[in-house]
């Protein structure tokens, strides 16, 4: 569970910094304060968590597929 939480938080930070690098380096506090008013695909303030969860599930799917194939080879 701890490993999965670290993966999720790392993915969250990677996506947040990767998508909004200029905002995080120039004015991070204002960027955080504007989060409740964001209109990203109608998700508002939840859009970072939703996008991270979607990507995490895709990665978890691939990890599961790889795990199944590794068991089959033993």
Descriptive overview:
With about 70 residues, the chain is mainly alpha-helical. The chain contains four helices and no strands. The chain has helices at about 1-20, 20-25, 30-35, 45-74. The mean pLDDT is about 90.
List strands and helices in order, with pairings.
Layout (H helix, E strand, L loop, with lengths): L1 H18 L1 H6 L1 H6 L13 H27 L1
Helix pairs in contact: 1-4
Q: Keywords for this structure?
A:
74 residues; mainly alpha
Structural class: mainly alpha
SS strand fraction: under 5%
Largest sheet: none
The helix fraction, in percent, is: over 70%
Summarize the structure.
By secondary structure, this protein is mainly alpha-helical. Helices cover 77% and strands 0% of the residues.
